[in-house]
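Quick illustration, no need to memorize.
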Amino acid sequence: MVCIRVNPANITRKSKKLTAGDRLIVKKGIYDKPVVFNGLAGTWNNPILIEAEKGAVFTSGLSLFEYTKRANLIAHRRQAAGYYPSVGQTADEAALVFLHCKHIIVRKFKFVRCWPTALYLDECQHITLSRIRFREGTIAIGANGSTTRDLKITRCKWKQDVSADHAMWNRIPWSAIHGSKDNTGRPGVDLQADYRAWDGDFFRAWDIAGNITIRRNRISDAFNAIHFFNRVDRLAPGVDPNSLEFNDGKRASANVLIEKNRFKRIRDNVIEPENHAWNWVIRHNILADCYRPFSFELDRAGWFYVYGNYGWVNNPPASNSDGHRRKCSHFKLGGAQHNEGKIYVFNNSWFYRSGKGIFPSGILKRLRHFNNAIGYGHPPKARMFGKTADLGCTTLPFSASETDEDIAGHFTRKWQPKDHDITFDGDISQDIDFPETLRNRGYAIGPNAKGGAPGFAHPEARRPDLSVSNGSSAFEKSIAWTLCLPNGGKFCLPAGLNVGAQQTVDIYKTLDSCFQFLPESTGFSDCPESLECQQTEAQKPEKPHLLLF
């Protein structure tokens, strides 16, 4: 076990000598040429530590203006080829690359203006990225490959747009960053005026196996935050996933923990699993002024647990030149899905001074939405389920047909188990139509849901406080609910907790320990093995899906 000190001139040559237990010190200097670590291997007990000294800076040397011209041209060429005009396919052009590495700890690095990518992991396992600072760049961290797994990203910071007036949030149209001919009505890429250099993420993954922990990071003034692509689990038409030999066709985007992060002014989506994903826990995060935090345009997915999060929109995007995509909402959804496990969204606190609503359109199959506290600054303009004012009265359960045009304007009303299997109950929402008028319009909202203000302490303060206290409608008013776990186990949330994220009893410690599929699980849990729980939904055992890598 040795300590090796390197500088910009010899980092590539000297790093080849690293073995398990060694330490690499990256000395002060400007590292403006790409560095590739290939085949470095620590062990479980003796990882390789790579640490940067203060003053060590990795950079591409390009300004935003210089790379924007290049990014716009890349996007234009893709558009001309018939593809979506993005730049993410260039993500492997990174300042620091880890290729076929394992058991590495990387910490205290600083990346400035690394266009398009700062740090890239390709076919790597057991990598920890800690206390890393990123400024600008298209993608802060990229991860690729079906054998990439067991990544921990903690206490990092990324600020993509460093302008003093928050230009991405306030001045630059959404369409200039990510728009296409199909979704904006524009002619497509504008080589002179677009900002395609910003069309990226804090963490972007392509087809990685899973076991990912993203904790205590601070991401601000960025286009997207956490974005997983999964192309390997797409099934051919007519294929039954239960007939497949390996994990029922679940090979990627599994076992993901996103917790205790702070996201601020995210112009598009905060968390976006594309198409296929399983066993995700999203908890105890703060989402401040984010355009549309959750993009769940899923195909096959399941066993999602979204709880204990706080989010508000008090300062929506300012008026852009084309007025495109300024009205914030909470969930971006697609059409019909084949979700194999439930999607639990519970005990979260949301506040909108203005916006479009929580579920403005689309479908989220097997959704269980309960005990959430939702406040609005202008209740008459609230839109819990999108544009529902023109929907006629109907009986429950809603059984009429729905078209793609219908769900483009409002959230689906087909909630029966034989349709999309959706349940809402125990929520408090300040939408003036919630719950009774929406029930009359075909939304089978449960009997324990309530309209009115949750009673947040200071939702519109400079530092919003979404806590509740004795006397508020959310205080100790939650309903009981049983969560089904991927292995067939269950956890009962008792009645009498607060509706929303803030709790006066330590239920989260017990609940947090129940998800034994998470990568840092110790095998021990405070979760009771057996609990009786009275609730409205009949429980059915679910087939366990144990994901192996």
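Residues 317 and 326 are 6 Å apart (CA to CA).
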